Amino acid sequence: MKNKQVLLAARPRGAVEESHFRIVESDIPKAGEDEFVVRAHYLSLDPYMRGRMDDANSYAAKAEIGGVMVGTVAGEVIDSRHEKFKVGDFVETRTGWQEYGISNGGGVRKLDPDYVPLSAYLGAVGMPGVTAWIGLNEHGRPKAGETVVVSAASGAVGSAVGQLAKWKGCRAVGIAGGRSKCDYVVNDLGFDACVDYKAGTPDNLSAALASACPKGIDVYFDNVGGPILNAVLDHMNAFSRIALCGQISGYNDPDALTVRNFRSFLVNRIQLRGFICSDHMDLWRPALKELGELVHQGKLKYRESIAVGLDSAPRAFIGLLNGQNFGKQLVKLI
Ligand SMILES: NC(=O)c1ccc[n+]([C@@H]2O[C@H](COP(=O)([O-])OP(=O)(O)OC[C@H]3O[C@@H](n4cnc5c(N)ncnc54)[C@H](OP(=O)(O)O)[C@@H]3O)[C@@H](O)[C@H]2O)c1
Per residue in 115-155, pLDDT tens? Predict the structure, then answer.
């Protein structure tokens, strides 16, 4: 029995390729005093990992060349010398892109797979769900009757944003890439409308947004930046809010993030707030409680793209950065 790991082999310039990763085998770690070993069942793949591959200052430490790629897993304790974590416990922990990892319990969350499925703790009842909850409630601050627009609407964060907005009595409008994602957002998630940004030119996108948002846009939850942000800025209402959550359209090419209509911020007195979910650790507990109840009751819906086996992680991650995932991207390891 060996531990398979994905290492960062090289830092990408532009698009990520499989050659930027290296897959190796090592011995399965043993628990030292006050430590435990976790066997990962699911690895979460998240857009933020692209930033960790760069040699740049950010809000979190970069991944090191030759080190295990950073990431969160949901798994089971298989060996323990820690008084609070026992063999058989299910946990969420940041042991990275590997099958077995060691932890001292710091930042570890115990999970109950009988309450919601284990994988959901990496999505709707995990960091992406909390990001949606915080960004919408704290920074979007929508009121009933307002129009909330969210990009990457079929994804892990966006799908939760629109559903939460609907429960607040808002008009929820998604933006997503392709007809099938848009159909899912409206028919399965219950958004009022969804605009397919791949259907035409930027002018078409702006016109489609105008017809999907007849009263303009009060809250934009931005997951992508770039040309989609530019189209949205044409339709923001006076005193509207933008929760700036992500800029995935420029993660491989920051030059793609140019803002064309900056004047809209002045004319419409738009309040823009960039945020990172870890800025608000005090809100995680209430957010996770609410999200857990909603998923448990079958009210908050989500979808997953599941790649199988650690070898598939680099390809699945590259697909995530290109919109090939449909819902929360996971790698199933058992
Ligand atoms: N601030 C925070 O604390 C925080 C926390 C978590 C996530 N985020 C950010 O939130 C965003 C969504 O994350 P997620 O985990 O929910 O991922 P996701 O939406 O499940 O997957 C990423 C999606 O981004 C879209 N996309 C990819 N390339 C694009 C492009 N060039 N232009 C427009 N859309 C593109 C694709 O959807 P389409 O096919 O619909 O385009 C893709 O499916 C990311 O920007 C991420 O960095 C921020």
Answer: 999 999 999 999 999 999 999 999 999 999 999 999 999 99
Measure the N-to-C terminal CA separation of the chain; round to a whole number of Å.
14
CB atoms within 10 A of CB 40: 27
Token pair of 146 as six digits: 């307002």
259-315 confidence digits (pLDDT tens): 999 999 999 999 999 999 999 999 999 999 999 999 999 999 999 999 999 999 999
- Ligand 1 pocket: which of 127, 220, 228, 248 to mutate (most atoms within 8 A of CB): 248
- Is residue 153 within 8 A of residue 174, CB to CB? The reply is yes
Distance 325 CA to ligand 1 centre (A): 10
- Give Cβ neighbours of residue 26 (< 8 Å, ≥ 6 apart): 2, 3, 5
Q: Is 162 in the pocket of ligand 1 (CB under 6 A)?
A: no
Q: Would you say 102 and 3 are in contact if contact means Cβ atoms under 8 Å apart?
A: no
